[in-house]
Amino acid sequence: MLDLQTTSGKIHKTEQEWRELLTPEQFHILRGKGTEPAFTGALHQNHQDGTYCCAGCGAELFTSDKKFDSGSGWPSFWLPISEDVIEAHEDSSYGMRRIEVTCARCGGHLGHVFRDGPRPTGLRYCINSASLEFDKEPK
What we know:
Metal Binding Protein, Guanine Nucleotide Exchange Factor, Chain A; six-stranded antiparallel beta sheet
């Protein structure tokens, strides 16, 4: 179990504590708002049944039945587990207007959401594999 400091359900850690908890790639993405190269993430081609959780705090974020192949090179989902597990923020970095998605519990950067996804939501949550951990459903 992770040893996390929480206040009102939110997790607060120092930069050093995050560095000790996460791999360098996870730290770069979750805490530094980085991204992994397309088609390289460990969970991009994952087709197993289970739950995708935040690699920073373990919060359950997405389920495999809401995952789809968007062709973008990152795991893509059309709906999170619930609206309160993620937060959306306007992101105008790199000269683009996008909506950043972060974990509502720890604030870790997950990826972005776009309005070019499948029905019924029309949304595509484009998420970095390194920001996720996968919990396989038992058979």
